[in-house]
Predict the structure.
Amino acid sequence: QSIVQYERFRLSEEDTERTSILTDLEAYNRDDVLSTLELHNWLETIRPDDTPRFGGHAPGRSCRGCTAPPT
């Protein structure tokens, strides 16, 4: 939906409409970022203790398509 709204913004020649669309897009993006942050925070609460926070793998584990060897 944000892509459609952005295209409407680009095609609009009316300042009031463009401002309204940008305001709506900003709110949408803010909600998206906050939702992603909440998801991240929740995932951190269920992350096993033996799983590294950034990069790497848990001992003896690997992932599909990843080039890092299991630790």
